[in-house]
Specification:
about 250 residues, alpha/beta, six-stranded mixed beta sheet, four-stranded mixed beta sheet
Length: about 250
């Protein structure tokens, strides 16, 4: 049965488990991924997250065609595409650093999933692609949007319009992949281990700053940063105390 498993720990793991269909996403898997992201955000013991997949030829082959092939056009647009987009956005905006461990081919939704992570490590023989046009659809989970902030436009067009694949080495040269390794999980774990020696709060704020600059949910990132600053102020403490005591606040301005 297809699933997304959450393995807790200081370096948590989100594992796609649908190897019979090359770890392709089902509606249940999207719901589970969203729920796990909420749980990870609420767990202060988690320093970082690895996004992995059960052993198969593909890290993730995208979306399970049988899950969407029979949907009416309106249902396809309103639910399948928008729900998947919402879930991948949730992963992208996770407060914890994330690393995609691309142990096999990442096509369609699998590539879009990896793009929603902060860092990507890729197996030597793996390939990346956007094959949606070969089945008469277009990328729907940020392949024509978020991916353009990470990969040059002509390269996205190569994949989306002409069906070309990116090799691991070319993906590294483009900066999309941080490392190419025979054992991508070991390489990702080595990167993630460094989080034990960094400030969790500093990494979270750094991620917000970078996302704000890159346009990843800029409005929410800026307001989160502003909210954090004001929440630490004496003015906020005085304002809350005055409200509770039903008096006029005397703001110290610090």
């Amino acid at each position: 049965m297809s699933a997304v498993h959450l393995h807790r720990g200081a370096i948590a793991r989100l594992e796609l488990d649908n190897p019979g269909k090359l770890n392709a996403f089902t509606p249940d898997m999207l719901e589970q991924l969203e729920s796990h992201c909420a749980a990870l955000d609420a767990d202060p013991a988690v320093l970082g997250v690895l996004v992995t997949a059960a052993p198969a030829r593909a890290f993730c082959a995208g979306a399970d065609i049988s899950a969407w092939a029979g949907l009416a056009p309106a249902e396809f647009a309103r639910h399948w595409v928008r729900d998947g987009h919402r879930v991948f956005d949730r992963l992208a905006r996770l407060s914890k650093p994330t690393i995609a461990v691309i142990g096999g081919h990442a096509f369609g939704g699998g590539l879009e999933l990896s793009a929603a992570c902060d860092v990507r490590v890729m197996a030597t023989e793996a390939r990346l692609g956007l094959p949606e046009s070969s089945v008469g659809i277009v990328p729907g989970w940020s392949g024509t949007q978020r991916l353009l902030r990470l990969v040059p436009e002509p390269v996205v067009k190569e994949m989306a319009l002409f069906g070309r694949h990116l090799t691991a080495e070319r993906a590294r040269e483009l900066g999309f992949v941080a490392e190419v390794a025979a054992d991508p999980l070991a390489a990702a774990e080595e990167i993630a281990a460094r989080l034990a020696h960094t400030s969790p709060r500093a990494t979270e704020i750094a991620k917000y700053l970078i996302h704000a600059a890159a346009g990843e949910d800029r409005a929410a990132m800026i307001e989160a940063l502003g909210g954090g600053m004001i929440a630490a102020s004496a003015d906020k403490s005085e304002g809350v105390a005055a409200f509770a005591e039903k008096r006029k606040p005397e703001f110290p301005g610090v």
